[in-house]
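Field log, afternoon session.

UNIT: design team B
ACTIVITY: writing a sequence onto a fixed backbone
BACKBONE:
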């Protein structure tokens, strides 16, 4: 009897976890389910194993006892295995994005000394990231002082300490919903991995709403670029080899800053004559259409605006997603601000190569906006890659990356994009 009990436990648990794939989240209640859904999908390979064991145990019981008690365990296990295998395949299948963007010989442009530290496969059962033997991390490095105050904006600098540098700097802007969180948020293993490839990483803490609006925030983002260019020699960085990247709101800011190096509306006066150009942009589920985003966030239309300049201690996640504060109102009140904040608005033929990564079931950032941005990039002859993972939601890269198929596959793409950006041929 213990055999059939285990068969039903394993098969039903596997089927339950696989059903999370079809769970369609909506804001704001979706935040209560985003973590269990993401963890369930991150552990998908293990549900394949569990479902297989459940179906096999049911089959063994059927063969030994000759009874029909196993009639449910076998199909449940098989169904869950099929669902999860399809999911893993969908997240890790090969594509021609790099070939279409950079040519058939793109792989040959990656320096061998970088390639040996990149992950070799889109997914493995347990990923062990290669780390630099001597990673250096300078914490809380000031990159700008707010005028009229003693307050400094801070960043962390991750760099190789053995002198083996690639010459590339990756400036990273954390996810925030424009209103919460901070630098150094579940990113240390990934940054060590990039340092092992010789890259320098600048992890930036920028000001958030309601302390600043879009203008103040993009100003902080661009001051980080200017600081890295000014201090490039200190870290063995080529000022022409700077890549911007970020997740969620950080991805949006990276896109907006990368596409507007000389835009007078989105560049502070103190940076008007500074070279703010970058060689590449990486967006992990970054917001691309803030009108669609506003509707997706589900903000009440009568929600009060907090005055810009307000500093609130311990605000938690209360201001995450407050795009209305960021832009000064609803889309019907300030449509020009939503247009200005849309990265697609600023794409032109001179825009830097771009890597877009997102799940097609993202309940925070509508995939439609990302598809529109990608289409505009291709139309403008900008080298661009758009990687869309099926049934994947927001923040998928932060949950169990050691085993998660979409998280590992995303890192595989980022590895190669950063390596290509070090090439002198681009």
């Amino acid at each position: 009897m213990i055999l059939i009990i285990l068969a039903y436990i394993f098969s039903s648990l596997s089927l339950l976890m696989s059903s999370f794939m079809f769970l369609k989240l909506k804001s704001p209640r979706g935040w209560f389910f985003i973590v269990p859904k993401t963890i369930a999908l991150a552990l998908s390979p293990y549900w394949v194993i569990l479902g297989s064991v459940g179906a096999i145990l049911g089959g063994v019981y059927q063969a030994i006892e000759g009874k029909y008690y196993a009639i449910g365990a076998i199909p449940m296990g098989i169904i869950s295995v099929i669902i999860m295998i399809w999911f893993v395949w969908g997240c890790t299948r090969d594509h021609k994005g790099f070939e279409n963007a950079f040519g058939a010989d793109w792989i040959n442009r990656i320096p061998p000394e970088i390639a040996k530290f990149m992950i070799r496969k889109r997914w493995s059962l347990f990923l062990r990231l290669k780390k630099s033997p001597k990673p250096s991390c300078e914490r809380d490095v000031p990159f700008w002082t707010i005028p009229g105050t003693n307050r400094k904006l801070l960043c962390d600098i991750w760099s190789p300490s053995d002198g083996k540098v690639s010459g590339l700097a990756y400036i990273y802007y954390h996810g925030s919903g424009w209103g919460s969180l901070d630098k150094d948020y579940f990113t240390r293993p990934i940054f060590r991995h990039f340092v092992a490839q010789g890259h320098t990483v600048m992890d930036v803490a920028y000001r958030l709403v309601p302390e600043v609006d879009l203008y103040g925030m993009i100003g902080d983002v661009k001051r980080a670029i200017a600081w890295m260019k000014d201090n490039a020699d200190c870290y063995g960085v080529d000022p022409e080899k700077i890549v911007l990247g970020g997740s969620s709101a950080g991805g949006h800011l990276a896109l907006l800053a990368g596409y507007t190096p000389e835009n007078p509306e989105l560049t502070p006066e103190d940076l008007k004559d500074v070279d703010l150009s970058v060689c590449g942009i990486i967006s992990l589920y970054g917001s691309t259409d803030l009108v669609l985003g506003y509707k997706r966030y589900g903000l009440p239309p009568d929600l009060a605006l907090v005055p810009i300049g307000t500093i609130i201690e311990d605000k938690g996640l209360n201001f995450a997603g407050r795009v209305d504060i960021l832009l000064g109102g609803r889309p019907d009140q300030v449509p020009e601000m939503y247009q200005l904040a849309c990265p697609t608005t600023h794409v032109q033929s001179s825009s830097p190569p771009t890597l877009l990564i997102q799940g097609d079931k993202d309940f925070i950032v509508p995939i439609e906006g990302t598809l529109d941005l990608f289409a505009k990039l291709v139309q403008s002859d900008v080298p661009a890659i758009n990687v869309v993972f099926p049934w994947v939601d927001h923040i998928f890269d932060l949950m169990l990356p050691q085993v998660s198929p979409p998280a590992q596959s995303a890192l595989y793409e980022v590895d190669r994009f950063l390596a290509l950006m070090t090439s002198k041929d681009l």
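LOG NOTE: The first strand starts at residue 135 and ends at 145.
NEXT ACTIVITY: expression trials, pending approval
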